[in-house]
Design goal:
Elements: E1 47-49, E2 54-56, E3 66-70, E4 75-79, E5 87-90, E6 97-105, E7 119-127, H1 133-136, E8 143-153, E9 176-178, E10 195-200, E11 211-216, E12 220-223, H2 224-230, E13 257-259
Parallel strand pairs: 1-13, 8-11, 8-12
Antiparallel strand pairs: 2-5, 3-4, 3-9, 5-6, 6-7, 7-8, 10-11, 10-13
Bound molecules: zinc ion.
Organism: Zophobas morio
EC number: 4.2.1.1
Protein name: Carbonic anhydrase
Length: 260
């Protein structure tokens, strides 16, 4: 562990003023746009579409050290090794996207008809041609986000072992730690699952409308105890972060595509 470089906080999602999930009406004006996320995924009106498979590069299967950060809004996770950048392409995405990091929302932000899941993971990738998340957040389709639903199960899922370390940052927003448990992205993604596709936004301020969303239909599982570890984090006001899901946004005529 001692050989790791010091943790540098990424500030790409920073917003000058405090925002909370309790008062979403006070989020900045950009969050009142017409292509916002999350949405309720339609049961009947989704446009059936043929998508080629999503292609992940081989590092998606490699276990690597990660850094966990309590952002005050979620547990942010990224690979510790800065040269470790799993990529995704195909599946109707235009070009190659590079992983920035991933984080979680409880309960889920996206909804399938009439139903929410206890947990949703967001795997945030930026278009390689923009070279950084900072640039990608200003560009149409600059960000590709993969959404994964998780159901609760009795026993632990080894893929979530890294959540054992959340207690070390639970009460300290903005601090990062190296996890004792390495992560392979493929263990957290339902690779091969059919998915929904639509064009939307970040689900946190500044709600940039630059995101190509891929929401997998097939849920994975997390242990009940692991889910509770995640939910122990406190926000910046030293209060337990009981929920961190943005409300469902209007489609405003957007199409939602579903793979066949
Ligand atoms: Zn998210």
């Amino acid at each position: 562990m001692a050989s790791y470089p010091p943790i540098v906080r990424h500030q790409q999602y920073a917003y000058a003023h405090e925002w909370t999930y309790q008062n979403q009406k006070l989020w900045p004006p950009q969050c009142k746009g017409h292509s916002q996320s999350p949405i309720e995924l339609p049961s009947k009106n989704a446009v059936k579409t043929y998508f080629s498979d999503l292609n992940f590069d081989s590092t998606v299967h490699t276990k690597n050290p990660i850094i966990l950060t309590n952002s005050g809004h979620t547990v942010e996770t990224r690979f510790a090794n800065s040269s470790m950048h799993p990529t995704v392409s195909g599946g109707g995405l235009s070009g190659e996207y590079v992983l920035e990091g991933f984080h979680f929302h409880w309960p889920s932000e996206h909804k399938v008809p009439g139903h929410k899941f206890p947990l949703e993971g967001h795997f945030v990738f930026y278009a390689k041609k923009h070279q950084s998340i900072k640039n990608a957040l200003k560009a149409k389709n600059g960000v590709a986000a993969l959404g994964v639903f998780y159901k609760l199960q009795k026993g632990n899922n080894p893929a979530f072992a890294f959540l054992n370390n959340v207690e070390n940052i639970a009460h300290r927003a903005d601090e990062g730690i190296y996890s004792d448990f390495d992560v392979a992205l493929a263990d957290l993604l339902p690779i091969g699952s059919k998915f929904y596709r639509y064009y939307g936004s970040l689900t946190t301020p500044n709600c940039n409308e630059v995101v190509v969303w891929t929401v997998f239909m097939k849920p994975l599982h997390i242990g009940k105890q692991q889910f509770n570890q995640l939910r122990k984090i406190w926000d910046k006001h030293n209060k337990l972060l009981k929920f961190n899901n943005r409300q469902i946004q209007k489609l405003n005529g957007r199409k939602v595509y579903v793979g066949v």
